[in-house]
Specification:
By secondary structure, the protein is α/β, with parallel strands linked by helices. The protein has helices spanning 14-26, 40-50, 58-65, 79-88, 103-116, 130-140, 159-164, 174-190, 205-208, 299-315, 330-349, and strands at residues 4-8, 31-36, 54-55, 69-72, 92-96, 120-123, 147-157, 194-202, 216-223, 228-237, 245-253, 257-261, 268-271, 275-278, 285-288, 294-297, 353-354. The strands form 4 sheets. A 7-stranded mixed beta sheet has the order 12-11-7-10-9-8-17.
Length: 358
């Protein structure tokens, strides 16, 4: 049996979900049965491009299209209600990061999924980057020794909050939109949860153009293992920067170190129309099959498709326990949200935050 999947949210990243499941549908590994979005014009475009049935009400999609599973690709602060509605309706759910912007919301989702015996998966796609997987493997093998400290950064061009999401960027921050990727990546690699957070941030550039949110956030995270990491996140890189996102991670242990430059993978170009560019084909690559059909690849696609494979495992007689530890689940989402809430609480109070208090 192949999973029937519906997508909730058809915007910029929602299209990645449509690409992922359209490809699986062509390969006979999933069926894309619906897209829910409030924007009727967008629904019409997505139907034309992907042949997907459109709904303006996600519960209407669940009732009429009867998906086994849904993916939630909406702004962060809308995740909680939608996810709970879908879980209570008996659907497996993949939620784009973060799981929720509150600790209470994450716990509520976890309990709802547990009660129904459903998959609650979070799309932390940095785990699927083969370079990050190599880092995780080497740390697990002890090649770096005991991890003592490290640094990670993730920075978007200013067009993201200014042009892509100006309406809801004030309800988010670079910590929620970008930082959570790195908070999860670090804790996944070193196999330790956050213990204490101290953070500072700046509101200047975006506030000056009418988008009232942080330009940048600097977080110092102490993990239960004793490792200490600094994570910088921002979304005010200049328009002329050569990539949408600048990102990387560095870890130092008692026996070694490793760095991953996730922005410049070695492919550069310069055109009169765009200027200098670097290309992250590891995240997303689009091409054609020999039959001339669209083909999508990269860890940004694979992390979404992994959800379909997990659902298929259950539909074909497998147990949820079989999948334990193979994907980012609700508990992972909760631990990352704890760090992010700690970061934002520290921003407001100017004091360190013990995550055990959350």
């Amino acid at each position: 049996m192949v999973p029937r999947i519906g997508v909730i949210g058809g915007g910029i990243f929602g299209e990645m979900h449509l690409r992922a499941f359209t490809q699986l549908q062509r390969d006979g590994k999933a069926e894309l049965v619906g897209l829910a979005d409030l924007n009727e014009e967008l629904l019409a475009k997505r139907k034309k491009d992907y042949g997907v049935e459109g709904f303006t009400d996600y519960m209407d999609m669940i009732e009429k299209a009867e998906p086994h599973a849904v993916t939630v690709v909406t702004p962060d602060f809308l995740h909680r209600k939608i996810t709970l509605d879908c879980l209570k309706a008996g659907r497996h759910v993949l939620v784009e990061k973060p799981l929720d912007v509150t600790v209470e919301g994450c716990r509520e989702m976890i309990e709802a999924a547990k009660e129904k015996g459903l998959i609650l998966q979070v799309d932390f796609h940095k785990r699927y980057d083969p370079y990050h997987q190599e880092l995780e493997k080497l740390v697990a093998e002890g090649k770096l020794g005991e991890i003592e400290y490290g640094y990670a950064h993730m920075e978007d061009r200013i067009e993201v909050p200014r042009d892509w999401f100006p309406a809801w960027a004030p309800k988010s921050s670079p910590g929620w939109f970008l930082g959570v990727h790195m908070y999860d990546l670090i804790r996944w690699v070193i196999k330790s949860n956050g213990a204490e957070v101290t953070a500072s941030g700046v509101k200047k550039k975006l506030k000056g153009i009418g988008v009232d949110t942080y330009d940048s956030i600097q977080a110092k995270i102490l993990f239960e293992s004793g490792a200490s990491f600094t994570v910088d996140s921002s979304w005010i890189m200049p328009d002329g920067f050569e990539a949408i996102v600048n990102q990387g991670i560095r870890m130092v242990g008692t026996e070694g170190m490793m760095e991953v430059d996730s922005q410049n993978r070695g492919a550069e170009s310069c055109f009169s129309s765009t200027g200098m560019q670097t290309h992250n084909l590891g995240f997303f690559k689009e091409g054609k099959t020999k039959a001339g059909e669209p083909f999508f690849a990269g860890y940004g696609i694979e992390s979404i498709q992994d959800f379909a494979f997990n659902v298929a495992h259950l539909l074909n007689g497998g147990a949820l326990d079989d999948l334990k530890g193979t994907f980012a689940d609700g508990t992972d989402g909760l631990e990352v949200t704890k760090i992010a809430v700690g970061v934002h609480t520290s921003l407001e109070t100017g004091a360190p935050v013990k995550l055990s208090d959350l």
